[in-house]
Amino acid sequence: MKKLILFLLPLWLLAEAHIFVLHRIDDNRYPYTNTSSKELKKYFDYLKTHGYKVVKLSTLIEMIKNKKPLDKTVVFTVDDSYKSFYKNGLPLFKKYGYPFTLFVYTKATTQKWGDFMNWKQVKKCTEQGELGVHSWAHPHLAKLSDEEIREDTQKAIKAFKKYIGFVPDIYSYPYGEYDERVKKIIKEFFPYIVNQDPGAIDFTTPLDNIDRIALTGEVNIEKKLKLKRLHLKRLNIKRDKNKIIEISGELIDNVPYVNVYLTGYGWKGVKVKDKKFTLSPNFTLKKYRNRVIIRYNYKIISKVILKEE
């Protein structure tokens, strides 16, 4: 029996969960953030047929903290508290009995903007899911001063206290944008933070920087569920203002090469020697929000990088 446990233990440790992020449901005006209810039903049917368990994000966090098996565990998060989710997404979650974590755009909700739920509808969502904080004014946080970031966060906290009676302990970055300065400030208020960097979840996932996979348009859910976390000792991005000079890293995983992606630059295969790799793109960023992805087959790790303005 002891030998059997020792044999199975590495498989248990390597099991991974996946967190998905949704925004609008059946709102074709905004295809970049829209998912059809038809597609969502396809995802749910696949999960149900293949024996996946869907849990709240807070449940997954506790599973990670307590080292409980993560295999075939899925979380759905929903950003922005759009009314289209309440109208077209919530009924599907109820039908399948699946929970979710809703990150509330508190200014839009408080001021009853047309495309967004009001607080009564947000409360209704807690019958099936749980809530998280998605800022007050949905700003580009890295463009704000330290004081402005804290002010925005405190306004969101105040709104939750007033309308819900408590403050969730999970935060989602607006636009998925953050840097180390932003992260440090948000951590003053929230122990758990989610990003929008695609990747899988395992016991090495930092709970203040949790990866999520976007589901917009038509997605092959089977392939997304095959993603695993690529383990790095370090990832260094050398830049001269907005010019990315070098992307280098040291891997824990033993792989012969990696594919490196930089927004606007594209993919480049790079050999790995002694678990180290280096790419010198010498590429000037064109967009404000950019992504670096390091990938080997289905193993992946990613990081958002922002253009200085």
Separation, N- and C-terminal Cα atoms: 60 Å
Assembly annotation:
single chain
The CATH first-level class of the largest domain comes to Alpha Beta
Q: Pairing-aware structural class of the strands and helices?
A: alpha/beta
Count every helix, treating DSSP H or I runs of 4 or more residues as helices: 9
Work out the helicity level.
25-40%
Radius of gyration: 20 Å
Examine the coordinates and then state which fold CATH places here, giving the name of the CATH topology of the largest domain.
TIM Barrel
Quote the beta fraction.
25-35%
CATH superfamily of the largest domain: Glycoside hydrolase/deacetylase
Please state the average pLDDT score: 95
Please give the largest β-sheet.
6 strands, parallel
- Name the shape in a single word: globular
Task: Provide the number of structural domains.
Answer: 2
Q: What is the second-level CATH architecture of the largest domain? A: Alpha-Beta Barrel
Q: How many E strands?
A: 19
- What is the H-and-E element order? HEEEHEHEHEHHEHEHEEHEEEEEEEEE
- Which blocks of ≥5 consecutive residues have pLDDT under 50? 1-12
Brief descriptors of the model:
about 300 residues; alpha/beta; TIM Barrel; Immunoglobulin-like; 2 domains; 6-stranded parallel sheet; 19 strands; globular; disordered N terminus
Task: Describe the structure in brief.
With 309 residues, the chain is α/β, with parallel strands linked by helices. Helices cover 29% and strands 28% of the residues. 35% of the residues are buried.
